[in-house]
C-alpha cells in the first residue's frame, strides 16, 4: 500500500496548504464562481452525480466550484468514485487505482480498496493498476476541492484510456451495481472543446451539453462525432451518465459553463468548461 504523490501541485493548483485553500476559496468567490463559500451543511438530500472540469484552477476553478457548491444540503458522501480520461496514454484500457492513499497539500485520502476490487471484478475490461495513474492530472485536480468541501471520505479513482461507447457503458454498469446502497458521489472529470475560437467552442459545447442534460448517451456520442467536439473526457461522462441512469437518474442540468476566454480575455483559442449535476432518484 503506497502513497500517490501529486504530479501537478504547484502548476495546476497551488503547492502549499495555505495558498491552496486561498485558491479554492477564490474559485468559489470569483465572478464566474458561485459567489459564496460553501456552508458545509449536510442534510437528507440525495447525493447527485457531477460532471466537473479539470484544468488549472486559474482557468476552470470557478466553474468547478459550482459542482461542489451543489452538495450543500445533501447526505455526506462516504466514498467518491472519480472517473477521468487517461491523457498520458499509458497503462491499461480502464484502470482502477487499487489501494493505498492519494496525497495533496491538504492531506491524504484513503482508497476504498474493497469497492475498487468489486468494480474491477465486474468486467474483463477493467483492471487494478497504479501505473495508469502515475502522470494523470484529471482526477488529482478534483481532490483539493473534495477535501475542502467534504473533509474525510474514501476514494475510487478510475482512468479511461479506451473511451468508446461500449467501454463507457460497461464501466458505468460496473460502477452502478457496486455502489448501490452506498453513500457514493460519482464524478466525471472532463473539459470540453479545446483550442477553438470562443464563439465556436460555446456553440459546439452547448450541443453536447444538451444531450448530457437529456441523459442521452447515444446522442452524446453522435454529436461528439458529428460536430468534432474535442471533449477530453467524453468516455468518463458517458460512464457516469450510464451509472446515473441505472441508479435512478431523474434529470440533469447545467450549473455553469464558461471558457478560458471568459477568464483571460483571450477568445482566439479557448477551452470550454462545464459543471453539470445529475439528480439521482434511487439513493
From TrEMBL:
Coiled coil location: none
InterPro entries referenced in this protein's UniProt entry, alphabetically: MEMO1_fam (IPR002737)
Gene3D superfamilies, sorted: LigB-like
CDD domains: MEMO_like
Family: Belongs to the MEMO1 family.
HAMAP family linked: MEMO1 (MF_00055)
Protein name, UniProt field: MEMO1 family protein B9J98_04865
Amino acid at each position: 500500500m503506497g502513497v500517490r504523490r501529486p504530479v501537478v501541485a504547484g502548476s495546476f493548483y497551488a503547492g502549499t496548504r495555505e495558498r491552496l485553500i486561498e485558491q479554492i476559496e477564490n474559485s468559489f468567490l470569483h465572478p464566474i464562481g458561485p459567489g459564496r463559500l460553501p456552508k458545509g451543511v449536510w442534510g437528507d438530500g440525495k447525493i447527485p452525480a457531477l460532471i466537473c472540469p479539470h484544468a488549472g484552477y486559474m482557468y476552470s476553478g470557478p466553474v468547478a466550484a459550482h459542482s461542489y457548491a451543489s452538495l450543500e444540503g445533501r447526505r455526506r458522501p462516504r466514498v467518491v468514485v472519480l472517473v477521468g480520461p487517461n491523457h498520458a496514454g499509458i497503462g491499461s484500457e480502464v484502470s482502477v487505482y487499487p489501494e493505498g492513499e492519494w496525497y495533496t497539500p491538504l492531506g491524504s485520502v484513503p482508497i476504498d480498496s474493497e469497492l475498487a476490487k468489486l468494480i474491477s471484478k465486474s468486467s474483463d475490461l477493467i483492471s487494478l493498476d497504479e501505473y495508469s495513474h502515475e502522470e494523470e492530472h484529471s482526477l488529482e485536480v478534483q481532490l483539493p476541492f473534495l477535501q475542502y468541501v467534504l473533509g474525510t471520505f474514501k476514494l475510487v479513482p478510475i482512468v479511461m484510456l479506451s473511451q468508446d461507447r461500449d467501454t463507457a457503458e460497461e464501466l458505468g454498469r460496473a460502477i452502478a451495481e457496486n455502489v448501490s446502497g452506498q453513500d457514493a458521489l460519482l464524478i466525471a472529470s472532463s473539459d470540453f472543446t479545446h483550442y477553438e475560437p470562443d464563439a465556436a467552442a460555446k456553440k459546439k459545447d452547448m450541443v453536447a451539453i444538451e444531450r448530457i442534460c437529456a441523459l442521452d448517451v447515444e446522442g452524446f456520442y453522435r454529436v461528439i462525432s458529428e460536430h468534432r467536439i474535442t471533449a477530453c473526457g467524453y468516455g468518463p461522462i458517458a460512464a457516469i451518465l450510464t451509472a446515473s441512469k441505472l441508479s435512478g437518474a431523474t434529470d440533469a442540468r447545467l450549473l455553469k459553463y464558461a471558457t478560458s476566454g471568459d477568464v483571460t480575455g483571450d477568445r482566439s483559442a479557448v477551452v470550454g468548461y462545464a459543471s453539470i449535476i445529475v439528480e439521482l432518484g434511487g439513493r
